[in-house]
Amino acid sequence: MGDVRGKKILDACCGESVSSRQLAQKGALVTAIDLSSQMLELARKKEAQTPLGITYKKLSCSDLSVFPNGTFDVVTSFMALMNCPDYPVALKEFFRVMRAQGNLFFSVLHPCFAIRGFPWAELHTPSENLTLIIKEYFNNTLIEQGFVLKKRPNHNHQMKRYKSFPT
Ligand SMILES: C[S@@+](CC[C@H](N)C(=O)[O-])C[C@H]1O[C@@H](n2cnc3c(N)ncnc32)[C@H](O)[C@@H]1O
Asked: Where are the domains of the chain?
């Protein structure tokens, strides 16, 4: 992610705020959002104990209308988007609230570890490589929202691996 000092970062779906706090400790100006009041309560408790200047808001990542266009230099979202049924809308919002040439960093659970009913894992026939699912997710959804892919993680999981971890 490089040097985040002074960068305005939105940490979406922050949970207990592990990543928000790490970024703030590195000098970023962090706004952290989550849908869960309980998670935000835990996050605010940590902030009260050791203040890092993080602003917390209870918001859905698919409605960031409180933030004007181009508010943030960077948007992060770790281990959450795979559980957001309206993730295309969330990605659209991330793109909108990020300044031009800003960056989105996110992680999702690989579909080979997905629970039954996980939509990405059901998009393809069993003979297909799961790499395709991730790739299409990036291609179809991120690019449609305006993102340019700079770096894609390495996904070499094959269907046989998926089958060896049935859920
Ligand atoms: C697995 S936790 C990850 C938390 C944190 N990002 C981390 O890596 O530790 C997923 C979080 O996403 C939040 N979440 C799920 N759907 C959301 C939504 N639509 N908008 C905002 N937060 C959401 C949950 O409340 C939960 O705190």
From this structure: 1-108, 110-167
User: Of all atoms in ligand 1, which is nearest to the CA of residue 86?
Assistant: 19
Containing 130, the helix (H) or strand (E) segment is helix 130-136
Separation between Cα atoms, residue 163 and residue 143, nearest integer Å: 30
136-154 pLDDT, tens digit per residue, is 666 677 888 888 887 765 5
Instruction: For residue range 13-31, list pLDDT tens digits in order.
Output: 999 999 999 999 999 999 9
pLDDT value, residue 130: 53
Q: How far is the CA of 129 from the centre of ligand 1 (A)?
A: 28
Question: How is domain 1-108 classified at the CATH fold level?
Answer: Rossmann fold (3.40.50)
Query: Ligand 1 centroid to 127 CA: how many Å?
Result: 32
Q: Which residues line ligand 1 (CB under 6 A)?
A: 13-15, 18-19, 34-36, 39, 60-62, 78-80, 83-84
Task: Give the Å distances, CA to CA, from 69 to 75, 101, 127.
Answer: 13, 13, 42
pLDDT less than 50: residues of the chain: 124-125
Q: Which residues contact 115 (CB under 8 A, 6 or more apart)?
A: 167
| Helix, strand and coil in the chain, % to nearest 5 | 40, 20, 45
